[in-house]
Amino acid sequence: MATTEIVTVQRRRKYHWPEAQLNFWLLIIWVAAGLNLGVFANFMMIQQQMSLGIPWLFPYMVTVSALAIIFLIIFMILIMQRQLLPGIVMVFSFILFVLWLAGLIETAIEFLGSSGGVNGNCNLYVLGQSFSGVSIDTLAYLEQKSICQSWQAAFSFEIVGCVFFIWMIVMASQVNRDQYE
């Protein structure tokens, strides 16, 4: 009786990612995630030092930024192994977009809120003032100005992060359809 041997040949599909766009995207998301992680961790430290309650936004954005950094590390490992699949990128980019958007909405409410918003208080009490010289007042002013500018940077990079996660979803779908060959 003759034996039949079945041989299957598996061909891996290669995806062609646009290098310049991918590297630019990685750089900006690293900056956005790192900035938000640092800013909101600093805000948590300030709130603890002042014995104030910590708003849910601060640990939320620290967590979301840390998740984005973990995603970027996995992303880069997959790039090095040439196994970056568009489907995985689209799913994780969408998840991070939704998480990032929730943080952006709450940050916008806190930052631009009509009564007692951070931006309004900064404009009224901090940015309209000017201190100089070696004094405790100058040091307090510089710290308050730094906090105001940290809010501005965090808000700005949350917007950038949302836009770039949408861009990655679009780019991954185009890679999946071989539009970058």
Describe, in plain words, how this protein is organized in 3D.
The structure is a single chain. The chain has 181 residues and is mostly helical. 73% of the residues lie in helices and 0% in strands. It has five helices and no strands. The chain has helices spanning 19-49, 57-80, 86-112, 118-126, 136-176. Helix 1 (19-49) packs antiparallel against helix 2, helix 2 (57-80) packs antiparallel against helix 3 (86-112) and helix 3 packs antiparallel against helix 5. It is elongated. It starts with 18 loop residues before the first helix and ends in a 5-residue tail after the last helix. The model has no long low-confidence stretch (mean pLDDT 90).
Outline the fold blueprint:
Elements (H helix, E strand, L loop, with lengths): L18 H31 L7 H24 L5 H27 L5 H9 L9 H41 L5
Distance between the termini: 50 Å
Strand content: under 5%
Largest sheet: none
Q: What is the chains' assembly state?
A: single chain
How would you spell out the order of helices and strands? HHHHH
State the low-pLDDT regions, or none. none
**Structural shape:** elongated
| Count of DSSP strands | 0
Instruction: Return Rg in Å.
Output: 23 Å
The secondary structure category is: mainly alpha
Number of helical stretches of at least 4 residues: 5
Proportion in helices: over 70%
Rounded mean pLDDT is 90
Structural features:
181 residues, mainly alpha
Quick summary:
The chain has 181 residues and is mainly α.
